[in-house]
Design goal:
The strands form 2 sheets. This protein has a 6-stranded mixed β-sheet with strand order 3-2-1-11-12-9. Strands 4-5-6-10-7-8 form a 6-stranded mixed β-sheet, covered by helices on one side. Helices cover 33% and strands 22% of the residues. Helix 2 crosses helix 5 and helix 7 packs antiparallel against helix 8. The chain is an alpha/beta fold. The protein has 8 helices and 12 strands. The structure holds zinc ion. The site of zinc ion has 7 residues, from loops.
Length: 242
């Protein structure tokens, strides 16, 4: 079985389209979306519709819940808040209803999907370091946990001696006795210095995980963001992937 995992689309239709095209060529049996379909980008409705239609499972991110007033934006920075306020003005009833249906955590096939952290998913904490990853790895009841939220791809591996290592590689062998906490990066707003859209493939026969990067038409998205007067900082960061 080959599983595709994508996250943090953030209303970026051009990035989502190239990722879904790539996924179509990859013989994926099951597709998981880790949330943040909206926020930041100019096409929230189409991104909600296409992500949920394409994925077998979609979970909620903090921007999804903020856009439907399920959480406040008090912990958001000013640019994120401004973009959510704009998103609220354009979301259609179908998108609002669809976002309301998204759960915080889903587990299947010895895998768990959560946007932020497993031990407190509704606190929307970030896992950046081994210390952050420790609690999550200890809370895991499945071999692999996929996360998004930071927009930075990274792998945390707990071996049989309970030692945890941080692995930045795009290719990770999945060993029998280890547990894996994997951030698949972001489709619509990468922040690791590589502006290309990011998604992951887990091959359960070959026992390996790959991170894929796909270029897309960034200028096209930026033009739309300018038209809707979204914050300049958000427009510019797409080109540098930061
Ligand atoms: Zn996000």
């Amino acid at each position: 079985m080959r599983i595709g995992i994508f996250s943090d689309i953030h209303g970026n239709l051009e990035a989502l389209e190239v990722v879904l095209e790539s996924i179509e060529k990859e013989n994926i049996d099951r597709l998981i979306c880790l949330g943040d379909l909206v926020g930041y980008g100019p096409d929230p409705n189409l991104c909600v519709k296409m992500s949920i239609q394409a994925a077998d499972i979609t979970i909620a991110g903090n921007h999804d819940y903020a856009a439907i007033n399920r959480i406040t934006t008090e912990n958001f920075n000013e640019y994120a808040r401004e973009a959510i306020d704009w998103t609220k003005t354009v979301l259609n009833p179908e998108s609002i209803e669809a976002l309301h249906q998204l759960p915080l955590i889903v587990s299947e096939n010895n895998m768990t999907a959560v946007h932020g952290t497993l031990e407190s998913p509704s606190d929307w904490n970030y896992i950046m370091t081994i210390e952050d990853a420790y609690r999550n790895l200890m809370a895991m009841t499945t071999k692999i946990c996929f996360i998004g939220h930071s927009h930075i791809p990274v792998n945390f591996i707990r071996d049989k001696n309970l030692d945890i290592t941080l692995e930045k590689s795009n290719n990770i062998p999945i060993h029998k006795e280890s547990m894996y906490l994997i951030n698949v990066g972001s489709v619509g707003q990468p922040r690791d210095g590589d502006p290309r859209a990011s998604y992951g493939i887990l091959d359960m026969e070959k026992n390996e995980f790959h991170l894929k990067r796909i270029p897309y038409q960034i200028e096209k998205v930026q033009k739309k963001m300018e038209k809707y007067r979204l914050p300049r900082f958000l427009i510019e960061r797409l080109a540098v992937g930061q």
